[in-house]
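Quick one: structure for this chain?
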Amino acid sequence: MEPVIVTSESKLRGFIDAAVEAAMSRLAPRLSPAEQDRPAKNWLTNREAQDYLGLSKATLARYRADGTLPYSKVGASVFYRLSEVEALLERSGASAPPHSKAA
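Got it. Here's what it folds into:
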């Protein structure tokens, strides 16, 4: 019989995050620069989308308002599907994500 391990959700999440980070560190040297800049999750926060696209908060708000970039809200938080953000880049003719303004 397999042993049962009991832990808290936060400790489990920390363990998973550390394992994913370690795996990504080993994989990163094999990725192209564009692949290295790509976030490792499917949804981006407003700030992450700003950084990824190199846009101001106002421009991103305009893109939401005019339907240029679809989004979802949970409470007051705004989220964007990474696939939609990348589709916006494709439509604009960008071949790779620009570097963050914050960097």
